[in-house]
Specification:
Length: 110
Amino acid sequence: MSEHHYFAASVTDWVTAPTREEALVKLAKALGSGYMTRARKQTGGIPAVIFRVELPECAHYLISEYRPYMITREDGKDNKRAGEFVPLSESESVFITNMKGATVPRKGNR
C-alpha cells in the first residue's frame, strides 16, 4: 500500500487516485464532457486544484475549502492521528483541458 495519494477538486466534485494523472482523468470524467466543453470555451478548461496527500488512499479525512483538512482515520481503520491536520503538498492550480486529464497552469483567481 502506497503511503501517499493525490486529491483533485473542482467547484462541484473531488476525487482521489494513486497518481496525479489518474486523479485528473477521474475528475474530468466525474464532471463530464458537456461541462468540459463549456468550461474550455469560457475559461480555457475546468479549474482544478491538486494536492499530494501524505497518507494512504484508504485514509479518511475531512475536506474544507476544496482541500484535505483533518484526519479521522489515517489508514481507514485506526484513529490514533484523529484530529491532526492532513499532511499534504502545496496546491497546484490548473485548468483541465480535455477528458484525458491534460492541464495548463492556472494563475490567480481566473
